[in-house]
Amino acid sequence: LFFGFSLQTCAIAALTLFLIPLFLLDLRYKILPDVITLPGLAVAVGVGVASQRSFESLLIGGILGAGFFALQYAVSRGKWIGDGDIRLGGIMGLALGWQLALVALALAYIAGAIISVPLLLTQKKQWTSEIPFGVFLTLATYTVLLWGDALLLWYLQTLGVV
To answer: How far apart are the C-alpha atoms of 51 and 19, rounded to whole Å?
Structure first.
């Protein structure tokens, strides 16, 4: 314990100091700068370790998160997403492990659709408009940091798997 807080709580607080500026910078300027994302990767490892996730889960999560966006970046030649999203995907995976990274990705895409589809239908945005997806990734990451295990359990119970 550190001043009455667990190591996990302190690690999540540290990662929050990276997620908030990433959220704000992507929302306002559509950028996820290296000066925040690169050290954020190290902090994310600390969160994963403090959360007692297995090394395998963290490694697979980091590769899955970054690789998912790297593939999109390569296929679209950087038109669908920016390279900062690759590093943010890595942060997600390293902090959450692969199982919860999948939950966070699903949440981010669902939230993105809930916001984007009405904007497209009302023609406030066009198909060619840039939508700062890092906003949804940071919110989903934070949500899953706090409630991911419960969300995953609820989903699996809903499917009847558990």
So the answer is: 17
- pTM confidence score: 0.92
Structure tokens at 57: 């889960």
Question: What is the rounded CA–CA span in Å between residue 58 and residue 116?
Answer: 31
Share of the chain above pLDDT 90, in %: 84
Radius of gyration of the chain (CA): 16
DSSP state of 17: H
Spatial contact of 145 and 15, defined as CB atoms under 8 Å apart: yes
The H-assigned helical ranges of the chain are: 7-29, 34-50, 55-76, 83-121, 133-159
CB 32 within 8 A of CB 88: yes
The identity of residue 57, as a single letter, is: S
Question: Tokens 């030649």 belong to which residue?
Answer: 77
